[in-house]
């Protein structure tokens, strides 16, 4: 496995813990390892942002938490229960507690059902009485700003993208989840609508006592919502930590390059240095050693041979890099670790 270690996991009080997750897809061209040993945890009430370029395995990671696809291995613990081991029946119950919101809101809604019926779907599946279904659907739609009959009685295709995403959010909330997994929830929406939906999720999070995993390729979106950030590259975790630390002092050359490729207007944080060049290698044939080694501006020989392990570079900030940067300088700890011979990951 070419994962990046588990040093950044914060312990048993986490609501969700994912350890050594591997997701593989069998294709005509061979086996794609979309997720190559990813670990993370989310504390109750926290928002974890998962960020990285398209194809790095963000969606596969989110879908694996809900056991939506075959081909995933690893330990997933939610509320103390091993999601990867429970029966299909129990999994259906757990999915009520872990609701997912997708990128394409219209496609994620049943095209033949009216909005109020869609929002009640989870309650119907849970066997709640008809009156409760109607009441909860109505109050939840009201809460997401769609209480009016001109929204509740229509079909999804009659809604705008933003309205449809509000319906998807209402459907998720109606069953009283503890965790909301948002997979690129605003990237298909107009920029003017994006902020409204982000604000709505933020408000609901507090009101409904939610823990959130927020997946996006857009760094500014992740920054605006996250307490903690996980940066992924080609199926592995590069960096994990407090969002402010990661954004203000990116330690992994990939995080730095990713931030450099976003135009900045902040003179305090220009992050001078090379932006990302070249393409992401194919997950069918990933580079050996550090997966970022083929594009890394700081690459050294050891990086091509040894997978770096996750280690703490500042309090609460971890990077899987042989030569991480701390305040723009190579971390001191990189040198002794390197000399001592970095452990190969299993
Ligand atoms: N069902 C599938 N069958 C085959 N390969 C897949 C499948 N789903 C994803 N992949 C591949 O797995 C890798 C990771 O995809 P994934 O969608 O998880 O990444 P992502 O970071 O969410 O990207 P995006 O933002 O484009 O969805 C990619 O190389 C993708 O082509």
Automatic annotation (TrEMBL):
Biological process annotations from GO: peptide transport; transmembrane transport
Q: Which GO terms describe its molecular function?
A: ATP binding; ATP hydrolysis activity
Q: To which species is this protein native? A: Actinocorallia herbida
| UniProt cross-references to PROSITE patterns, sorted A to Z | ABC_TRANSPORTER_1, ABC_TRANSPORTER_2
Domain ABC transporter, by residue range, is: 16-259
User: Which keywords does UniProt give here?
Assistant: ATP-binding, Nucleotide-binding, Transport
Name the domain of life.
Bacteria
The UniProt entry, under SMART domains, shows: AAA
Which Pfam families does the entry link to? ABC_tran, oligo_HPY
Q: What is this protein called?
A: Peptide/nickel transport system ATP-binding protein
Question: PANTHER family from the entry?
Answer: D,D-DIPEPTIDE TRANSPORT ATP-BINDING PROTEIN DDPF-RELATED, TRANSPORT ATP-BINDING PROTEIN
